Amino acid sequence: MQINxxxxxxxxxxxxxxxxxxxxxVVLAHVPFDWAGEPAWAYTLYYxxxxxxxxxxxxxSGYLLLSKQEPILDFSIxxxxxxxxxxxxxxxxxxxxxxxxxxxAGVTFEGILKxxxxxxxxxxxxxxxxxxxxxxxxxxxxxxxxxVAHAKKxxxxxxxxxxxxxxxxxxxxxxxxxxxxGFEIYYIGGYVGxxxxxxxxxxxxxxxxxxxxxLILFIVGFLFTFLVHYYDISPQDNKLVFRSYLSxxxxxxxxxxxxxxxxxxxxxxxxxxxxxxxxxxxxxxxxLIHVIIFEWVSILAKLYGLHIQTYNAVISIPIAAVITxxxxxxxxxxxxxxxxxxxxx
Length: 345
Fold this sequence. Notes:
Layout: H1 13-29, H2 40-50, H3 53-66, H4 72-99, H5 109-121, H6 129-150, H7 153-176, H8 192-202, H9 208-230, H10 239-242, H11 248-264, H12 270-280, H13 283-303, H14 313-336
């Protein structure tokens, strides 16, 4: 499907709703542990739920990117302009904050060079890992587009089934049994499966049956994930088994949430849909800036003598997330109104 650049594309309601929810869930996921008070299970509850945030972003990206066909050069230019500058700017910002890059020797060529080497080696803040995975997926997207455009439904299903076997199921087998895989199957893995699943599920019609399936998947995945963290189920040293975004329980929970939200988004009141559209446009920026906002909120709380961890965690954690989310949204909204800064969020 070719997009006429002269026509502004119409927003997809369920995509806007899902982006907005996922952005908040990511903020919820990063509420600092030392902000959590009693009861202890509340932090575990919210953290377990928050594991769907990043997978939902991958699923949305897969649906949006694989549903289009365009020349590789056009695709590459769009992705570079939208990702490269924010990646570079925010990597520098977080490196300066976290590494105190220029505190001792000032701004020097050697200091700048070392900073860029650190950026190439890995994310300068924990949440920026998303860039490194997303860039890899973007490089592979033109090939995936050719595949989904010409593949039969059975062939897409085959790849998805193969991904499940090579990733979450194999992680379970290797983590819980003495069996270890010696075959080179890494090229099947990564977050490609989320991209294809997002494309596949995004094409499904909304129906009562799909709503029920989504609800069941989410409940089963969430309950298991909560129990894993609450009882600290082993193995603790291998996060791939139960605790990573590629663990079977988290994949199931994320797919359930994706299917559930897709089926109910269109039934939201017009005002909610309008707000979701506005928030969706700032979701990327919220993801980038919210960690800094958490620091500001923490400083302000201490200045006013507020000790967040002394309040009931059932209420204090979501309130802290909402405050941080709203300040992040407002910050990004303002940045987007400044032409010279708009492209970094």
